[in-house]
Amino acid sequence: QSALTQPASVSGSPGQSITISCTGTSSDVGGYNYVSWYQQHPGKAPKLIIYDVSNRPSGISNRFSGSKSGNTASLTISGLQAEDETDYYCSSYTGSSTLYVFGTGTKVTVL
Amino acid sequence: QVQLQESGPGLVKPSQTLSLTCTVSGGSISSGRYYWSWIRQPAGKGLEWIGRIYTSGSTNYNPSLKSRVTISVDTSKNQFSLKLTSVTAADTAVYYCARTAGTVPGAIWGQGTLVTVSS
Predict the structure, then answer these.
(1) What are the helix and strand counts (H, E) for chain B?
(2) Residue A70's CB: how many other CB atoms inside 10 A?
(3) What is the CA radius of gyration of chain B?
(4) Cα–Cα distance measured from residue B94 to residue B45, given in angstroms and rounded to the nearest whole number
(5) How does pLDDT run along chain B (119 residues), one tens digit per residue?
(6) Do residues B35 and B54 make contact, with C-beta atoms less than 8 angstroms apart?
């Protein structure tokens, strides 16, 4: 099971919206509505921000939203803030013996 | 509020066995329909799911590591553990334990612990 493909970097100005893509196959992203997204600040553990494609855990800002089309999932950050500058990873349930596969990671830069 | 904390040696020699324990606090490891996972991250790289265990003892492992991995649980201590045998430098990484909610590998994470494989 290969890692999901994310752009290495995405940037935007404060207040703008950005979108991070996460591309897999019909065996993972395309086959299930079980994509999750994580935010990871340097030296810290990942933090769940989206699960099951578009659901936000309690306490997560509604500036974060998720969607999926075919084999590609997307994370949108609206009203970009300086604190959003960090790394983001997607993940998908696969249903195979490799139950979970992660994305390659995207570094978000706030200009 | 459930919290997880990894513990174990930070340095392991090549060919030896890496052993880590995750202690769960703020709730019983047996409550709820949760699995408990180990996930690792080499420096500057992405995340890799290692495996998970249910409190019944049922396990699932990443096929790429399956021959070297054992995950066990001790419900009396509210802990679960990871053993990775025959380690090489490629196993050097930050190791995280996490509460897994079905289709979500990392609903809650420990802070992570760096394990370096070196002689």
Answers:
(1) 0, 11
(2) 10
(3) 13
(4) 10
(5) 999 999 999 999 999 999 999 999 999 999 878 999 999 999 999 999 999 999 999 999 999 999 999 999 999 999 999 999 999 999 999 999 999 998 999 999 999 999 999 99
(6) yes
Q: Among B48, B39, B33, which Cα is nearest to B4's?
A: B39
* Burial tier of B33 (Cβ tally within 10 Å: 0-12, 13-18, 19+): exposed
Contacts of A57 in chain B (CB under 8 A): 107
Contact A101 B107 (CB under 8 A): no
Query: Helices marked H in chain A — which ranges?
Result: none
Q: Any CB–CB contact under 8 A between A37 and chain B?
A: no
**What is the radius of gyration, based on Cα positions, of chain A?**
13
Q: Number of residue pairs across A and B with CB atoms under 8 Å? A: 65
Q: How far is A18 from chain B (nearest CA, A)?
A: 21
Q: Which of residues 73-92 of A touch B (CB under 8 A)?
A: 89, 91
For residue B45, give the DSSP letter: S
| Nearest-angstrom CA–CA distance, A74 and A21 | 4
Q: Is A64 on the interface with B (CB under 8 A)?
A: no
Interface test with B, best of A29, A102, A104 (most B CBs within 10 A): A102
CB of A10 within 8 Å of any CB in chain B? no
